[in-house]
């Protein structure tokens, strides 16, 4: 399976700036392997930015990120991205048909394997024949997830994977996360859905204005507590 290796991210005093704007400020934290970590916090707090640091879609402007003790810049980027797959909030489809898209990183993928990956993400198997043009946002995001799963990543980085989905489709995605964890894999999930974070996460990071405001198991996180009226 290739998913049983220990994969731990350590962020050491990580900062991200764009010009004068401080996007992430002095974040030091470890993300444990074989767990699901949710990143929560208000819009604009820096959640997607933090996620993008973990497979070098973005470089920190200060501090460093280590994977199993190795600083990320010392790792080969394509190899890192096979181990650490990112499904972005805005999906990017790369080819004309869904089947071809699923084969981008796995040219050997059979049609049966493609159909079963689609089913995992809650899409009908016949979706393999669909042109990528005209897919809805939620469908395109799930095709991106299936394309990432085709690489059997050890770590799955998911940026609001269910925000565009109905309940049944969202459940399918949550099951993908649970299955990955059950197989020893690691998931890092950005979610605005506090109930989802409580359901799925072993650990939660809360960002506020680029700073780490809370970190711990979901039951200890004030940000996740339902507001009682
Ligand atoms: N290239 C950039 N230049 C300037 N500011 C940027 C850049 N990229 C991101 N930002 C800003 O950094 C902040 C954090 O962005 P990020 O996407 O990480 O937030 P987020 O917590 O994921 O937000 P949301 O919940 O709305 O998706 C935002 O204010 C955003 O406008």
TrEMBL record:
Gene3D superfamilies: P-loop containing nucleotide triphosphate hydrolases (3.40.50.300)
Annotated keywords: ATP-binding, Nucleotide-binding, Translocase, Transport
TM annotation in the entry: none
GO MF term (any one): ATP binding
Keyword Metal-binding attached: no
Residue intervals of the ABC transporter domain: 9-229
Alphabetical list of InterPro entries matching this protein: AAA+_ATPase, ABC_transporter-like_ATP-bd, ABC_transporter-like_CS, P-loop_NTPase, PstB-like
PANTHER family for the chain: ABC TRANSPORTER I FAMILY MEMBER 17 (PTHR43423)
Protein name (database record): Phosphate ABC transporter ATP-binding protein
Organism: Actinoallomurus spadix
């Amino acid at each position: 399976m290739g998913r049983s290796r220990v994969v731990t991210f350590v962020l050491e005093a990580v900062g991200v700036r764009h010009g004068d704007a401080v996007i992430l400020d002095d974040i030091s934290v470890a993300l444990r392997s074989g767990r699901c970590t949710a990143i929560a916090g208000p819009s604009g707090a820096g959640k997607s930015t933090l996620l993008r640091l973990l497979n070098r879609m973005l470089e920190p402007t200060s501090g460093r990120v280590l994977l199993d003790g190795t600083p990320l810049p010392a790792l080969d980027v394509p190899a890192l991205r096979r181990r650490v797959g990112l499904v972005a909030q805005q999906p990017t489809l790369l080819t004309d048909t869904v089947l071809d898209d699923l084969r981008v990183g796995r040219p050997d993928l059979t049609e049966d394997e493609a159909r079963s990956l689609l089913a995992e993400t809650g899409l009908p198997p016949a979706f393999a024949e669909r042109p990528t043009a005209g897919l809805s946002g939620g469908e395109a995001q799930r095709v991106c997830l299936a394309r990432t799963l085709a690489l059997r990543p050890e770590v799955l980085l998911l940026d609001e994977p269910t925000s565009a989905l109905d309940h049944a489709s969202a459940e399918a995605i949550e099951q993908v996360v649970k299955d990955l964890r059950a197989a020893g894999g690691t998931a890092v999930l950005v979610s605005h859905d506090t109930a989802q974070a409580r359901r799925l996460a072993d650990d939660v990071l809360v960002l506020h204005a680029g700073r780490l405001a809370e970190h711990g198991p979901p039951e200890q996180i004030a940000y996740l507590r339902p507001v009682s009226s």
